[in-house]
Amino acid sequence: MLRMRKYNAGDTWLCALCHPAPPPPPETLEHLFFGCRFAQDCWAEIGITWDQNSSIIHNIDSAKRRWNHGLFWEIFMLGSWGVWKERNAKIFENIAPSKRYWKRRLKADLELLNFRFAKDSQNTQLACFVFTL
Ligand SMILES: [Zn+2]
After folding, report:
1. CA–CA gap between residue 92 and residue 51 (Å, rounded)
2. What's this model's pTM, rounded to 2 decimal places?
3. 40 CA distance to ligand 1 centroid (A)?
4. Which residue of 24, 95, 123, 132 could cross-link 18, Cys pair, CB 3.0 to 4.6 Å?
5. Please, are residues 105 and 51 in contact by the beta-carbon 8 Å criterion?
6. Residue 14 alpha carbon to ligand 1 centre in Å
7. CB of 72 closer than 8 Å to CB of 126
8. Phi/psi of residue 10, each to 5°?
9. Are 77 and 110 in contact (CB under 8 A)?
């Protein structure tokens, strides 16, 4: 379970992003980032799909193999961060999860990340991907 004890996040252990879809599944790492309908819709926006019957390691490995834009880890980590932010906005501010905001945040985070790369192929690769968002 992903809830932190020191914050008052309510007493439910169910996925906030699925809630109130009946029946909301428990919030697990696997569910939140790979199995959650909201997360799957977000990932699909950028062309990443997950095999629902595989382990996390296998899922990430096979998605990385299918990915042809480069910088998979950077995009995966920032996309996951965005799912986490949408989850927190729902729990702590009661803001409905938004695929549009997720994508906007991903684009902004990737643009910031692009400043870290020198003007080389990674910079160009990332800039091209961000342009497609
Ligand atoms: Zn969910």
Report:
1. 30
2. 0.83
3. 9
4. 24
5. no
6. 8
7. no
8. 85, 180
9. no
59-91 pLDDT, tens digit per residue, is 999 999 998 888 899 999 999 999 999 999 999
Interval between CA 120 and ligand 1 midpoint (Å): 38
| Tokens, residue 21 | 């879809």
Q: Which residue has the higher pLDDT, 107 or 113?
A: 107
The amino acid at residue 30 is E
The answer for residues whose C-beta is within 8 angstroms of residue 107's C-beta and 6 or more apart is 130, 133
CA of 11 to the centre of ligand 1 (A): 16
For residue 16, give both structure tokens: 């906030």
Residues with CB in 5 Å of ion ligand 1: 15, 17-18, 36
pLDDT of residue 3: 53
Q: Which of 34, 18, 84 is closest to 26 using CA atoms? A: 18
Distance in Å, CA 78 to ligand 1 centroid = 18
Q: How many CA atoms lie within 13 A of 89 on its CB side?
A: 14
Question: How far is ligand 1, taken at its centre, from the CA of residue 133, in Å?
Answer: 24
What's the gap in Å between 12 CA and the centre of ligand 1? 13
